[in-house]
Amino acid sequence: xxxxxxxxxxxxxxxxxxxxxxxxxxxxxxxxxxxxxxxxxxxxxxxxxxxxxxxxxxxxxxxxxxxxxxxxx
Length: 73
Fold this sequence. Notes:
Strand content: under 5%
Oligomer: single chain
Largest sheet: none
Mean pLDDT: 90
Low-confidence stretches: none
Order of helices and strands: HHHH
Helix content: over 70%
């Protein structure tokens, strides 16, 4: 049930941004006509934000990976 709610919420969130133009305004230079295009714009936004966070918090990410037994070199 929790998985269904999470998937439904994510789908609704992306559709809402597609319909209101929130994703296109900042993350696309074309109209987002399908859910797949809106999802790709959302993934682009999340990738950018993670990369930006990682460049400023490399030590935090490395410590997290070390706590899981991995090496971030």
